[in-house]
Amino acid sequence: MSLQTAGIHHITAFARDPQANVDFYAGILGLRLVKRTINFDAPDVYHLYFGDKAGTPGTIITFFPWPNSRKGKVGGGQVGITTYVVPVGALGFWEDRLKGFGIETTKVTRFSEDYLQFTDNEGLRLEIVEREAGANNEWSFGGVPTDKAIKGFGGAVLFSTKSAQTRHALEHIMGMTQIGEDQGYARFQTSADLGNLIDVPVADMEWGAGGAGTVHHIAWRAKDFEEHAQWQTEVLNSGYQPTQIIDRQYFNAIYFREAGGILFEIATDPPGFANDEAADALGEKLMLPSWFEPKRDQIEANLHPIQVRELEANKQ
């Protein structure tokens, strides 16, 4: 192992209702819809990206909202819990806000940190934790002030069917450092301020099933295109079968499935989400790669209209 990822680049999940998805992540969680595009492999489905003001790596959750898709089952071979981080002193604000929208929360403690756990409208498991590290989010929307706003990812909890092998991959392929164990979890750390703490239950978990309310993959950061190519070689030399390098317009990507069943992506930090629209207009219109542009009218006709809107508590 000669490379070290800085941490999470993005996490991608499945959903059903695109407007409900926007309402939850922009309207309730106050994130910015930084990109509305399509699933390049299934152009009749949105690919929606939510993050901080600029869509900085380490803040981005993305969704394929596929109406009428099956309900998934959270379990082994998936990111089990996506962790968001907020400024110190903001957890009470979020407990009150979620309660105001009728969202049930549970408090748990792990590695001496207090977490507020809940699910989104599709059943995706989320949690919020306070930490000093990481810059405050400059984006304010829907009654979420910048001093309370979600900074980005605190990390994630990986549910593995072969925990020992997943933990080995985090340390010896992705270059993370194991920093402790607590209550049946092993914790790994990366160098970034956000998306930098990864927890893995040490016990193997039963397989989950993909579908709405589950995570499709977790993407790790590569700092540039040169390092990205090195990652592809590193993964191959570690005994896995990475894909070819794929241009996703806003980053380049390779994918491989680690032994515990979790689909890993490695994504480049550049070029970013201002690659095809102005930074102050991110997410305002449907952006298509050049090869789909001639079919824009047909594609738009097949997509449910969506809008970013402010919500009132208990009036979703």
From TrEMBL:
InterPro entries hit by this protein: Extradiol_RC_dioxygenase, Glyas_Bleomycin-R_OHBP_Dase, Glyas_Fos-R_dOase_dom, VOC_core
PROSITE patterns, per the entry: VOC
Alphabetized GO MF terms: dioxygenase activity
Name this polypeptide is given: Ring-cleaving dioxygenase
PANTHER family: RING-CLEAVING DIOXYGENASE MHQE-RELATED
Swiss-Prot/TrEMBL keywords: Dioxygenase, Oxidoreductase
Lineage: Bacteria, Bacillati, Bacillota, Bacilli, Bacillales
Domain of life per record: Bacteria
Ranges of residues in domain VOC: 7-131, 152-269
